Amino acid sequence: MLRAGLRWMFLIIGTTIGAGYASGRELWQFFGHESGLAILLFVLFFTVSCIVILHVSYKRKSTHYLPVLRDIVGTKLTGVYDVMIFLYLFTTTVVMIAGSGATVQAFNYSYWWGVGVIVLALFFLFMKGINGILSINLFILPLLLSGLLFVLILFTIDQELALFSHWHEQRNWTAAFPFTALNILPLIAVLGAIGNKIRSRKEIWIAAIGSGLILGVISYIYNNSLIQIADEMLLYEIPLFAILKHYSFEMLIFMSILLWFAIFTTAASGVLGIVTRIQQYFNSPLWLIVILTLVTMIPLTALGFSTLVSYLYPIYGILNLYVLTRLLLFPIWNNMEKT
What we know:
Blueprint: H1 2-16, H2 19-22, H3 25-30, H4 36-60, H5 66-73, H6 75-105, H7 111-126, H8 130-158, H9 176-191, H10 201-228, H11 240-244, H12 249-278, H13 286-297, H14 305-319, H15 321-328, H16 330-338
C-alpha cells in the first residue's frame, strides 16, 4: 500500500515539476513578492484536487481521462474540456521539449540537439508502455527533489535569507487560484489513465497529501530564493541558472542533468495523457502514436522556452479556474446532480 501510494505520489510530482516549475520560470510567473499565503493556499487546493481526481479515477477504474473528466465537469462541458486537455497536454509537452533545448543551449550546444535527445528518449521510454514511466518516476524524482532542495537550502543559508520575514505582506494571495488551476488539467489526464491500477483509498491519501506537502515546501523555498535574484531574471532563460552561478561548475552540471530529467518526466506524463486518449479512436501500437505525436510537436518548439511559458501558462491558468472550482466543491456538485 505504501509503495503504491508513493508510486502515485511521484507520478503526481513528476507531472507537475517540469521545465516550467523546476527551472523557476513558472513559479516566478505566478508568485514572486508577497506570495507566502498564496503558496499555502496552493498546497490546500492542490491536495484536495488530487484526492478528488484519484477518488473518481479509482471509482471508475479508468484507463484514460474521459470518464474522470465527465464526472468532474459534467456531461455538457466534457467535450469542451476534452479538447482543452488535449491542447493543453500537446502545447505543454512542446514547452518541455523546448525546455530540453534551452537546457542544452545553456552549455553553448545547439538548441536542436536538446530537442532531438528528449524526443528519442521519449520514444524509447514508451516502448515499455506505462510501466516504464512509473519506474523512471520512482528512480529519478527522489534524486531531483533532493538535489533541488539541497541547492535551494544551500542558497538560503549562504545568502542569509529570512524565510518568514514578510508574512505581514500577502497581497498576492489570489495567485494560488490560477497557479493551482494550471497544474490540475494535466493531472486529470494522467491520473485518469491509472484508475484501474489503484487498489485502495489509502493509496490516494498517501499520494495526495505527500505530493501537496512536498510541492508546497519546495515552492516556498524556491520562490524565496528567486525574489533575491529578481534583478537578474531577464538575463536567464532558465532562472535556476541565476542561482547556480554562485556555485561550482560541477554543481551546475549536476543540477542541469536533474533539470533535464524533470523536463523529461513531465513530457512523458503529457505524452501518456495524449496517446491513451488517441488510442480510443485508433487501434494502433502505442509506439507508433508516440512517434507521430512527437513529430508534429518538433516544429512548434522553435518559438522558444521562455516565450511559450510566459504566454501559454497564464492563459491556461485562467481557463482552468472552472475545473478547479468543480474539484474543490466536488462533494456539493456531486450531491446536487444526484438529486
